[in-house]
Amino acid sequence: MILAENLDQFGKDPWWLVLAKVVVIFAFLVVMTLFAIWYERKVVARMQVRPGPNRNGPFGLLQSLADGLKLAFKEDIMPRLADKVVFFFAPVISTICAFTAFSVIPFGPTVSIFGTHSPLQLTDIPVAVLLVLACSSMGIYGVVLGGWASGSTYPLLGGLRSSAQMISYEVAMGLSIVSVFLVSGTMSTSQIVEGQAGNGTVNIGGWHADLPAWYGILLIPSFLIYFTAAVGETNRAPFDLPEAESELVGGFHTEYSSLKFALFFLAEYVNMVTVSGLCTTLFLGGWRAPWPISLWDGANQGWWPVLWFTIKVLLLLFVFVWLRGTLPRLRYDQFMRFGWKVLIPANLIWILSLAGILLTINSDSLSGPGKFGVSVAIIVAALALGFVAIAMSRRNVTVVEIPKAHPGGRVGGSKGFPLPPMNLEVPPSPRAKLVIAEREPVSTGKEKA
Length: 449
Prior knowledge:
The protein is mostly helical. The chain contains 14 helices and six strands. The protein has two domains: 15-329, no CATH class; 332-397. It has helices at 15-47, 63-72, 84-100, 128-149, 153-184, 189-195, 215-218, 220-233, 245-248, 258-283, 304-326, 332-361, 368-395, 430-439; strands at residues 108-113, 116-120, 199-204, 207-212, 410-411, 417-418. A hairpin with a 5-residue loop joins β5 and β6 (417-418). It is globular. The N and C termini lie far apart (104 Å).
């Protein structure tokens, strides 16, 4: 189904309405961040059979605001070896990119705002989805530069790990959206939402079926791959390896404090809201009401769609929290292998299969049963190709034998690498021994005489 681009309704708002939309979107993201922090702490507490925040405000709703104000008034520490300019601008880059990505997400249809008819969306362009991907890719620079500019080992390792992780899962996320482009025929977010209106009638071999037009149901492999990649791209558990406390102290933001740390924290939660909003727009019908609410004639009119959009985003945020409270953190090599050897190949096979099916459906040379048979053959061939690829990848795995430790405390022989002490006792530093030797007087043997 190819939709005609109809973006004439954008770019005609007066300046005061554009400014009002910017302020409202900024306030929405900040409030959603404060709510998401409380929401996460409350849901995880419920999973662990404890009350969670319940002191500040009703149900502890003001706990996130109190923590934010406390963080803002903490001492701002600048490391001595840090690159001060880059150290300052790194969290600003991440925050600006996180907020900018939400500018093309539609909240609802065209409504009347103080007598001016305007869509509930800041702006839209023919390649709006690519703008969101570009903003999330630019946000990686803030993380990498923040780790590099800290002048410390663990932030540098966390920044490098973040760059590899976010770039890897950015590829899988981008490929999962290609299927939406194939089906909708557009990259405009507002047109993608319009393509999911109502129910879609599908003709399979002469058999007509009324299926929901949500791309999350029609393109369920892309939906699952997108959300998995979104969790990895936003550094959320169980994929929070750049911030692994047990390995890297705090990751790329170890040396940050006060407002700079708050900006990184804000950017992470805004990115969660952004990928959830984009997932809602691409796969869950956007601001359109779900069934059976959609049976009501006024469900998709006026300001009600803002409520449906917010509810869908909150449900996706619940899945983020659910994963954090359920799954353990992956090992880094397992995580990278899963992204490059599972998600990306599965995505490519699915895209090729979908393209073949769409080409078969749109072909005039085949009848209804012929189209159905060719589509089934394409799906079977794709599954077979996937199983063969998995089998070959497992077959090519090489087993590395761990060399035995030398009695002298070295791996690989007497001239190999030193073996860490198995009793976890850290040996004294050679520099400390040198200082002690300098402080102690050297005995000449004349004292006793």
